[in-house]
Every structure is written in C-alpha cells, then in structure tokens.
Design goal:
Structural class of chain A: alpha/beta
Number of strands of chain A: 14
Order of helices and strands of chain A: EHEHEHHEHEHHEEEEEHEEHHHEEHH
Mean pLDDT of chain A: 96
InterPro entries (chains A, B, C, D): Arginosuc_syn_C, Arginosuc_syn_N, Arginosuc_synth, Arginosuc_synth_CS, Arginosuc_synth_type_1_subfam, AS_cat/multimer_dom_body, Rossmann-like_a/b/a_fold
Low-confidence stretches of chain A: none
Protein name (chains A, B, C, D): Argininosuccinate synthase
Catalytic activity (chains A, B, C, D): L-citrulline + L-aspartate + ATP = 2-(N(omega)-L-arginino)succinate + AMP + diphosphate + H(+)
Distance between the termini of chain A: 66 Å
Enzyme class (chains A, B, C, D): ligase
Oligomer: homotetramer
CATH topology of one domain in chain A: Rossmann fold
Radius of gyration of chain A: 25 Å
CATH architecture of one domain in chain A: 3-Layer(aba) Sandwich
Subunit structure (chains A, B, C, D): Homotetramer.
Strand content of chain A: 15-25%
CATH class of one domain in chain A: Alpha Beta
Shape of chain A: elongated
C-alpha cells in the first residue's frame, strides 16, 4: 500500500484519537480530515471541533454531524425488524453503529478528495473488522489506516509520552488508566476490559452507567404503549415520534426501571472470547414490544422463517458484513415480512424487566372465533384434525413398521 | 378403523377423563386400562386409583407411575441442551411432556395386549397432535381414540348430563366452568382460554399459580450456583442432585423470586393463534444458566451452528415430532456439542429475573491472555488482523468495483 | 360446508374432467364454469370448448386461455432464479404449474360470481394440496370441491358406467386403462403409476414422451449460447426471445439431445413415497446455464446464502405454498441476489447431458488479475493469507489446547 | 514465531517440494522429515524415497505411506453420506484430502519430535488454509511453514536457478512451464491455471486426464449395481469390496464412460473466484447411487434436514474446517440418518452420464400399498387429505382475510 496523502479520521476529540491524528500527520506526513458524529453517545461535539482546530486542522476539514436519526431509522430499526440477537442475548449495539460511521468516512473522503480513512479501533477487536469491511464495500480503492495495528505506542506510558511530545493536552482523569473501556451510542453502552476480564467475577456496580440498578428502581411497575407501523416503532403512549426521539424516550424509561443490563461472554469474529457488560435500555424494551406485535400480526410461516434466518443475520452484523449482498438479501426477506406488523403493544416495566402484557391491531391474525374454548359457530371443524394428524403421521408409521421389520 | 377392543387411557382422575373412561366403555364396549403419571403436576395420584376402581377398572388395569426423573433426564434436559425456545420465548413446557406420556401409553398397551390408546386433548390444540404422532411413531399399528373429536358432548351441560347419567361423581367446584384451563408438570404450568382469550387484556393476577408475583417477591437478590456436566445441570450451590430433584429445587427458587412468567401469543401447529400464560420458574433459571456456561465452554462454530438449528428443533418438539428421525439427528448434533459444557454458573434471582453474573470452568475456552487490554506477551499478533480483514474484504472489493463499473 | 351453487372447474376436455363436470351438476345441482388453460401441455384447446358445450355449458361460462407466457415469466423463471430442485434432483415441473391454475380459477370465480372451484386431482397426491392451498390463500371464502375424495367412482368400471349413463363420449383409447398416468406442461412431462410402481424396475422406454433417447441422440455435440438478464434467460444464440418462446426452444434442443430425463422416488407431502419419471428437457438446460452465469456474476456470500435457502424454497413449492408469506420472503431475498446475474453461457448438449463449457459477462466478478498463476502485479498480497489463517485458526487452537488440558 | 528446528514436509518427490526441502534446510538450518503419501494420485512413491535420500534425508526421517483405505473410509465416505457438493456442483475432491495429510504430518511431527510442518501450497489458494487449519486443530502448538508465502522465488526462472544452485535434479519436462496445474487423488483430478484462466474459453481436450471423452465413450450403456450398508458403498455387482478398492473400481467404470467431468468457476475461501476442470469419475457415480438408495430408505424428515444442512457442511469442508466442532456436529446428525441406508442401486453409465434406473432394499420405506393407483385395500383413506389440507390452509385463510380487511 502506498502512503496515504489525505486521511479522514473518525475523531472523538478524546486523547486516543487526538494522538492518532498527530501520529498520522507525523508518520505519513498526510493531511487529516476529522469526522465527529453524534450517534447518541451523550457527549458534546463542539469540544471535538476546538480540539481539532487546536491540532491544526482547518475548519473546512472538520466534519461534525448529528447522525442520530439516520442511525436509528436506517440501521437500528431495520435490525430490530429481525429481532436480531447475537449468541442468544446480545442486541448488537456496538456492531450496528460501525457501518454508518464508515459510510460517512468514505463519503467525506470522496467529497474532500481523501484517499484514506482511519479509525481508533485496536487489532484485537471486532470494530476494526466492521469499520474496514464497510469501507472497502463502499469504496474498493480506499486505503484504511489502523494505527493500533501499526504503531509501537503499545503501552499507556508510550502513549502519554507521545502526547506530551506533541503537545496534545491530557485531561487529568486520563493520566491514570480507566478501569475498563467504554463504547456508547443511542442504542447502548458497552463496557469491557481490565476489571471485567475475569468472567467469573461479578461486574462491580460502578460499571453500569446507562441504567439505574434494578435493586433501587421504582417499586411500582410502569406501563407504556408502543405503536408500530410495518415493523417500526412510531409512537409511545399515542404520541408519534421520530425514530431517534422514540429510542431516546425508551432509553429513559429503561434507565429508570433498570432494564437492559447484560453480563455476557461472546465470541469475537477474530477468534477469541471476550466479556462485556452491555446496557441497552430502550432497545431491550423495543425488542420485547416488537416480538409482542409480531405475535398477533405475523403468520407462523413468516415468523418461523424469520426465526431461522435471524442467527445468520445477527452474525453478519456482528462480523461487520452490513454492506454485503447476503445481509441485503436477508433484509429484503425480513422487510417483506413486516408489511402488516402494525399495531400497539403494552409493556410492563419493573425492576429490570420489560414484559409484554397486551397487544392489539387492526392487522391481527388472532382469531378468537377459531381458538375459543366456547362454541366456535363452525369456524373450525375438529374432525379436520384427524386427517391432519393421519397424514402427518403416515411417514412415521411407515418408518416404525420398517424399523420393526429389519431390526 | 375397526372398533378398539382394549384401550389404554391417559387418566388424570379428573372429571373430564373420567367421562372419557365411561364413554369409551359405553361407546365402544371396550376394556379400559388407565394410566396415571406423576410428571410433577403437583397432584396426588392415589385418588386417581380410587376413582378408576370406582369406575370399574380392575387393579391390574390401573397403572400409576412416578415418571419425574425420566421426564427431566430424558426429555427436559436433552431439550435444554439446545436452548430451545419456540417463537423466541416459549420454553415448551407442555410440548415436552406429551411424548413421554405417549411412550408409556404404547408400552402399557403392548404389555396389556391393548390395541388402542386414548387421550383427553381437544381437536383444536397441539396436544392431540403430539400424543398421536408419538404413539404412531412408536407403534404403527396402534389405534388412537380422541373422544373430543368424536363425541357430541360439546357443551359443559352435555358433559355434566353424561356424568350424572353414568354416576360419575362431580366435585362441587367442577359444576361451574373454570375461568381458564390449566396444564402443569414439573417444568411448567400453562393457562389458557376463557378470561385469557383477548390478547389485548392483561392476564388477571389470579391466573398465576406457580410463581409469586415479581411485585411482592423479596427485595433482596439471591445468588445461586448451578453446576453443569456435559450440558446438564447436576448441582445447586455445590450439592449434587438428581435431575428431577434439581428442577424441583430450581422451581422453588423461581417461585420465590417470581421468575419465569410469560404472556404469549403463539402459532399452533393446527393453524391458529392462541394466547397462553406460561410459568416456567426453574426452567427459566436453567436456560439462563445453560447459556452462561456455554458462553465460556462452547466454541463459536459449535455455538453458531446450534443457534441456527435451534428454531427447527424447537418447532419439531412443539409440533409433536419428538420421535422423528430429524429430531434425533438434531439431538445427535446438539449432544455432540455438549461434551465440554461443564462448569459452574452464578445466577442472580431478583423480582422476576434470573441473570448470569459469573461463570467458571476447567473446560473454559476463555483466554484472558488473548483478550486482555494489557500486554498479552505475544499470545496474539495484532498484525494478523490486517490479513484477516483484507481477505474477508476481497470479495466485497471485487463486488464494489463491479457495481461501479456496470452501474 | 354448504353446497356450492356455481363451480369453476379446471377442465381439460378429457374423460375424467368431463365426468367431474357432469358429477358436479348431478351431485350438487350447481352451475359449472369450465376453465381450460394452455400451459404448454401440447394439446389443442378447442376440442375442450366443444366438449364443454356438448355437456351443456353456455359459451359465456367457458374460459379458454393461453397462459404460457405468464406461466414461464411469473412462475417458472422466478423459481429458476433459485436453482430450485426438490430432494436433490426434481425440477418441480408439476408443482410450479398448480398455483397459476388456482389463481385463474379463483379469479374466474370472482368474475362469474361462482362460490366454488373444483379440480380433478386425487386424494393421494400432492396436486390436491397445491390446488387447494393456493385457492384458499387467494380467497379465504372459496369452496373447493375435490370429487376424487368425495365420490364413490373409485374403479375404472364405475367411471365408465357413469360416463355412459350420462352420455359422455368415451374415446376408444380411453376404454382400457392407460399403463401409467401423465401430466405435462411447458416445463416438463411426468409419468407415474401402474407399470412404474416398482422402483426397482427400469422404466420401459415407451414411457418417455418428451425426449429422444440419449442412446439414439445425435453423435455430435451441439453448442448453444444462452443470454441472461437479472437472472432470467432472454436469448438463445443471440436471438432475444419471450419467456415461453425461449423455453419452447430449449425444450426442442433438449428433446433432440435426450436431455432432462429423471427416474426418481420422492417423498410426497401427504406422507408416502412415490416413483415418477420426469422429463424436463429445456428446464434442465436452463438450470445448468443459470448456475453457469451465477458462477461468474454472483458473490460467494450471496451464492452460499441462496444455496442454504434453496431446499426450503423448493419444499415450499413442492408442498403447495407458492402463495405463502414465507415463499414470498424467500423470493424477495433471491430476486435481490439476481440484480447482476447478467451475461452469456455456452452449453454443450450431447446424448443426455447439458454442460456449461464457457461463460462471460460485463458483470463478471471473476478477476484473472487476482487468481492468475502468473505475476499478479500486486493485486493480491499472499502474506495476507497468513493473518487470515491465523485468526481463522485461533478458536481451533484454543479448542485443541482445552481438549488436551481436560481430556 | 521462533525458527523451526525440525520440520515435517509434505513431500511429493517432485521439483517444487524438492526445492522446498532444500530451502527449509538453507533458510532455517532445520532438520527435515519427509512425508509422502499414496492417496491414489497414481504416482509411484519409491522415487520420492530415493530423491529424499539424495537430498540428504536420513532413512528414519523418510515416511512413505499408503493411506488410500483410510482416505476413502474415514474421509470420502463420511462426506458422501451427506451428498456434499460445493456451490451446487463440485464434489470436493481436493478439499477432502487435505485434512488427512495434515493429520499424518502432525502425528509424524509428534512421533519424530518435530516442532513444525510444511506444505507446498501457494498463498492464493484454499489448500494452504485447509492444511494449516487442520494442523492447528490437531496440535495448537505446531508451527506451519508455508514457503510460497515467505520466499522470493516467485518466478519459474528463480525457482530453476535455486534448484540448479542446490543441485536439485530437474526433469527435462519440468524445464518449461506446464500449461496448467494438476492435483490428483483417488477421488478426483483437478486442473487449473494458465490455459484455463479464461472462464469463457472451453477447456482444451488434453486437459482431461482421468476420463475418456463422452464423445468417444462406448456406444452401449453399461449397467452396474452398487450395494450400500448404512450409507456406505460396500459392493459392486454383488462383489464385496473395501472402500478404496470399490472407489478404484468405480473410477475405472467412470473413466470408460466419460463420467464426472466438470467445468467450474468457484468461490475460493480467500475471496477470489477461480476456474477449475474437475474429473471425479467414481465419485460422480457414487453420489448418484447414494441419492438413489436414500430415495427409498430415508424418511422425508431426515432427508429434508440433510438437504438443508448440506450446503453448510460442504462449505466447512471446502474452507478447511474438517477438524472443527461444527463439522463433527453435522457429521453426527448425518451419520444418525444413515442407519437404514442399506440396499442396492442400479446405475446406467452412458457417454458422460450416470443415472439411477432402479433401487431396492429390505429397508425400503416405499409402500406400493399406499401409493398405488389401484385399489389400496384401505391402506390410505383419501378423506384424511381433506382435513390435512384444511388445517394447512387455516393460516393462509386467516392471512387472506386479514389482507382483504386492511388492504
């Protein structure tokens, strides 16, 4: 790979990406464009602008964007249509944010004539894969610079020395090492590393930053009603909301009731197991409610097909293949299933749990006439079941007879 | 089908199966053998013996058996190795009990020279299918009598008239109609029908019979440690237990902390949707813990394959195909994966939730050496990730280049 | 089910459906509308009109339609996009024709105010299921009359007596029984029953009606070039053709070279195995060519997903679930994959075989630059493979180390 | 990775692996152990021994083994139980040989105290991945040396210079470059590269080395009968044979009749497409026959599950994951299904084709009594089909009614 001339850097304004910024300049002698996005991580963006300016980036090369609506509408919601969970439990909060960042990195590179993009993910994690696969899928000629895989600043001490040598200001609380590492966006907060590295040890309470403890959550349950249209949440308690507004509101409900904590050991795409503490307050409520509305509006054939496709779909997102033809194929199938997933779900929030307690819809397939224990007025002929069973049993009978014969 | 001469009836001792007993005698003039099993439903069995005797069944034709250990060991535990849930949420508590009952019905039929078996399931539900597919799979020549699909006792009034006409005692509380219908065994209690038929309406609190309300559950969390060997739970807090004993103990923990309630609308195999309230206290804890121990002992390739097979496996059990070659094939694959699923999981129980908070094992695949944020002493070469990403990206790059070319 | 008042009958003009026509009139006293379609079965349609008129059907109740283009365009081609084969070998020639017939039956019923439709399929086969599931999926209120499941004309003798009693003309060659039963349309001809019922016995040569014997086919191979656009065949040897014209032409090539014969034992949806002789001359060439063009235009991620979905897709079509949400979901995924399946395939036809021998496309993903044994000018860095292998191996190494440790 | 001290080399005795042998000695100063296996590639092994001796390898470090029986019994046959084909057409002839070679390399390394193994596969292909994943899965501490990814002998000229400089004899026909590259074993011969690199161009006839041309094959068909037990072929025309003997005999039948040629473009695991010419004469007959015997002995539930698992199973083998838990899980499921796959298949061989024309078995599930067009004496009640269809249709009706209601 020839040296990059101009690099768009995913820049948070924090110490690490500031070091990367300077390192790119010194190591490659290249121009740097910074890109800072609001994906709902709960940090101010303007300090990143000032920091970039201070590091010598010209205003026209500083890109700061609020991507929250796009994030929820085009990434989070499509994923939730699938009820996607990775390895049974993880709601993919980090995974789903990476493709959007890469998409904007590539677009800004094309707009600014940059030939490379760069990110601050380490060489051990999944995020490097997600960033880079997305970038290459969108621009096959782009270069990707992953400083953590290249440089020799492998210890905290070396990093701080580099920062000091290049006059990068170091906040006091960054002098020492954080007891664990955090990633956050509108969907979730993840914590991993250091004090969390022993999966036998219970995570200390201070790790949780996004949710109140179920132990101290309100003693009374709270009920909310979430409205859906074609598989996407569109309202809470009857109030229509935009995607990001709605997820923000659900996050607040979830935070209050301690919903969405997960202590998890997962398999990284790069081959090792890692332990993370995930907090997905609004997303956990949303998944429960989406399942609730599908229960009455989705046909069993569609539902069972979705269930069987989901693990692969979740794995694709986890592994970084959002921009792949197979993810798009699965999305086409999933979206097709959601045409009538419209209605309202009542969810009870209480001390760490979100539970569906009622659901209704004009699009309901639930037929009280068929299922009732009372007289069904001929909606269903129980005698049909005899033939249904006989023909389902036929192959089993032939099999049993054969097995008896040739035992 | 020619008329049966001797029928083995799945007999609970209750009013409905007593009516069936008498109806079989009068309708077909056949001998009746009763089979009453303890699967942990929480009812005395001896009254069923007395009732059967009273209805004229000879002692040698009354079979009463405690099947709890066999139920958990050979049915519940194999199913939990798969983390089986139907339609995302249902732990299959009713489904998994049916094949065992059918197995014993068929075995007793063969032992007593009976040519038919009979059950009290209605023509609208899944249980008829499960009973009958299992019976036919085990004995292709057996006859199955399903009175609810045959007789004209379609109203409560007609049933009571029949009972009175045949001197079947009617308990006072059975005069009126129950507000909902219940099925129970060691794994779960399900409630459905009548007051539960509107899925928009929250289930009344009196429906729950097996779990205390999360709202009134203890204000302090309780921690338990569940030991696993080859995928099956074998101990609680270090005390080894037999399968049924262990599940019974977990049920008690779950009851106390309100764990395992589910308000669910599902797709029946016979084509309609129905709403049920399920309580699976011990099973819910067991599923959480099994996932917890798999997190550190199961390889990702095995785990992801399991996840992708699970929906089909669960569907097979739900639909009544326990005794089918495809369920056995899947079981062989699942069991193969469990050879090292051995270790201990710490679970926190609190107001309706069971959450893994720690797990450890001699068989652990978790490698702190690889995953650590600290210096890994060469366990992992971050530069490998570059090649890994490049080759995973190659097809995406070729695709992007093609799509740009022929757009 | 209340008696039908007006029935649309799938009417071939042959003896069996003429008997059904008359039986519907006499059994139910209902009006009959006849529907005769040209799906390429190779029979004149006008005799069916005359026959219907002779049996008293008014001209406005006689529907005769050429559906060949719709059949190939909207049913055969979408199915071939999936490379669908049932149980490894069967190209679904009969299965795919049934939904279209049902669709027109239901549409004609709605246009003529009929409340029922009727077909001539027996109670043992798959076709009854396919006809009826399609009809119910398109009109939930339609009645379906399946005379073969209802009447008592169960022997050839009884049928002929009924025909004579109702003055239905019987062609001389229909007096005796045919040595096997045939179904045909533009995609295939199937033969089954009678002389074919022993799967150990080789099918006699006179069974094959649609293809010349490979043994007597031309001694020289013939090469044809099939052009594709977005997954569908659009030209032969450079000549653009409509779907039905193209399939007709491929059938002629296949017939001449003995392509597409299959001696097959399959599992019917109704639970039994049956043996059929299938001839799918053009379809066999088309499948081979479609695979050929996908080889260079389809990405591996998309291709492997398609391969894994195909068995379920084929099973749905075989079982009669064309008009189901899950088939439509899968179709959405498959169609999504075909956007660049455009190019040309060269196929060699010779004595029973159709083999791809070349393929080219502007949309090709094949990169000689990458794959060449010669110097690749830096297109591919072989050192990347080391990292790729290391990270793919990591979990296997951790596994091997664990297994050595706790053996 | 520290330098290897003793390396077991997969050694063919040819020029390339002789150069590798010498390069390992000179580059690493390590001891070399040679391993030469007969997997049915059709070459003498003794010349390899002499060549190794001439290059200074001591007799006790030269391992020459006939692995043909183990290859077919433990690798080829288990794979054929699955009817495994990669991307619809490729019978995995190269893929399946690699794990066995790696297994012996690792075992010999452990026996001789070697710390590394080495192979002659290039950095662009799949074989490096297969060799190395297998080696690491069997010994997590083994080193793997892949000279083609390390050295700078990247042109034919450099290689020959190296050979001459180290007095490695060069056969005259190796001076020039081969027009394509060949791999062979008892299952197949593959050819790729050079003259075959344009997938639009028909492969020249001289590429085919293992099969006679269909065009010049015998003008008369030949019929053979293959006997199976539990899914494996055990006899031809009634003569019992060992696995390798049987495959050798099938290869001869296939060669004679031009069976098993494939012109194929495939997706390599490393991300690129490549074109190969494969000849699998005996394997093609075996696959056809195995499908034939499964048609009558395998239940539809088992068969359909197998079909749905096969693509993943084939992909695992292709990608080099033979020794992975997920391949073993799938194998457990597949093997479970083969318990009754016992019987005989009659196959017709003719000018490039192998077609099942008859099959019979004591384990047959085919029931003429059920399927017959004649009177079935009550084996099957056609009226059962009505109930079967009604309940299968119920969800489709509810769906159609809903869709009409809320359109």
């Amino acid at each position: 790979m020839s040296a990059p001339k101009k690099v768009v850097l995913a820049y948070s304004g924090g110490l690490d990406t500031s070091i990367i910024l300077k390192w790119l300049q010194t190591e490659y002698g290249c121009k740097v464009v910074t890109f800072t996005a609001d994906l709902g991580q709960g940090e101010e963006l303007e300090p990143a602008r000032r920091k970039a300016e201070m590091l010598g980036i010209k205003p026209e090369n500083i890109f700061i964007e609020d991507l929250r609506e796009e994030f929820v509408r085009d990434f989070v919601f499509p994923m939730f249509r699938a009820n996607a969970v990775y390895e049974g439990l993880y709601l993919l909060g980090t995974s789903i944010a990476r493709p959007l960042i890469s998409k904007r990195l590539v677009e800004i590179a094309e707009a600014t004539g940059a030939d490379a993009v760069s990110h601050g993910a380490t060489g051990k994690g999944n995020d490097q894969v997600r960033f880079e696969l997305s970038a290459y899928a969108l621009n096959p000629d782009i270069k990707v610079i992953a400083p953590w895989r290249e440089w020799d600043l492998s210890s905290r001490t070396r990093l701080l020395e580099f920062a000091e040598a290049h006059q990068i200001p170091i906040a006091k609380d960054k002098r020492g090492e954080a007891p664990f590492s955090v990633d956050a966006n509108l969907l979730h907060t993840s914590s991993e590393g250091k004090v969390l590295e022993d999966p036998a040890e219970m995570a200390p309470d201070y790790v949780y930053q996004r949710t109140d403890s179920p132990l101290t959550a309100p003693d009374e349950p709270e009920f909310i009603e979430i409205g859906f249209e074609k598989g996407d949440a569109v309202s809470i308690n009857g109030t229509p909301m935009s995607p990001a507004t709605l997820l923000t509101a659900l996050n607040e409900y979830g935070r209050k009731h301690g919903v969405g904590r997960l202590d998890f050991v997962e398999n990284r795409f790069v081959g090792m197991k890692s332990r993370g503490i995930y907090e997905t307050p609004g997303g956990t409520i949303l998944l429960e409610a989406h399942r609730g509305i599908e229960q009455i509006t989705l046909d069993s054939g569609a539902g069972h097909l979705k269930d069987s496709l989901m693990p692969r779909y979740a794995e694709l997102i986890y592994n970084g293949f959002w921009f792949s033809p197979e993810r798009e194929m699965l999305q086409a199938a999933i979206d097709k299933s959601q045409e009538h997933v419209t209605g309202t779900v009542r969810v009870m929030l209480f001390k760490g749990s979100a539970r569906t307690v009622g659901r209704w819809s004009d699009h309901s397939l639930y037929s009280e006439a068929h299922v009732t224990f009372e007289d069904d007025a001929g909606a269903y002929d129980q005698k049909d079941a005899a033939g249904f069973i006989q023909l389902n049993a036929l192959r089993l009978k032939l099999l049993a007879a054969r097995n008896r014969r040739v035992k």
